[in-house]
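Handout for the seminar on molecular recognition.
Each group receives one record of this type.
Step one: identify the two inputs.
Step two: read the structure output and locate the region that could contact glutathione.
Step three: write two sentences on what you found, then compare them with the reference statements printed after the record.
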Amino acid sequence: MSDQEKLTLFTINMSHYSEKIRWLLDYEKIEYQEQALTPFIHALPMFIKGKRQRTTVPLLQHGDKYVQDSPRIVDWLAKNRGPLKTLPADIQDEIIEIQKRFDIIGKPIARYLYFTGFAYPALIKDIWTQFAKPWENVVVRTTYPIIKHLFKKMQRVNEVDVAKAEQKIDQEIKWLEQRLSDGREFLVGDTLTVADITAASLLAPLACPSEHPIYSTQDFREKISGSAKKWAASPALEWVRTMYTQHRGVIWAKTPRISS
Ligand SMILES: N[C@@H](CCC(=O)N[C@@H](CS)C(=O)NCC(=O)O)C(=O)O
């Protein structure tokens, strides 16, 4: 494979938007190397590579080019590694509509979970530094109070915005339940599509599927996702867990690379 064809996916371990693209690549059997970044240390390289005034992951590298933002990555993969079985042309518009809907609740979900999660600094630090190089580990742990302060400001982790996030999440969980109420397995059509992958991956931190190496841990379930218990037994989150059991496969079959 030429360097131009090789794909690298830049991620953060806890990121559900990263998981969306990781799942898509795994399911489509598109070869890639994952590169795991440490939160906050990720910001500058993502800002420079993405060239979109944003610092977010996931970001996909092909050759010396970069695509940032998960829906843009889906578009790029469809055009350059397609046709994708998860994006059949005849139902594409509906799939993209549902992708948009669940992309929107990713941030409210992160806001909602960090609000309670920040009460457990040791756990957050351990998760954030899972793939850290020694110097990154020191930086994140020693500057944690500053990082947390900045993060809370930037991601609007405060009582008012978290209350709004809770309403928004509840609304989307109800929408999903309504959609599934006719007993359908998939959100659109008869096979797994980008709509299912987006909805399931973005709701995964609330559903805590056993297949996910971070969201399935007892600490994550109790301390970070604990505040989401009221939705835990909902048919929507049950559906997320079923999607993971039946269609996710092994996460991190190939260990992510660490160097930047
Ligand atoms: N619209 C973006 C959202 C991505 C996003 O918010 N990613 C989070 C991780 S889940 C992130 O990178 N946060 C750190 C930052 O904003 O610098 C996408 O779909 O890729």
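Reference statements: The radius of gyration is 18 Å. Residues 123 and 129 are 10 Å apart (CA to CA).
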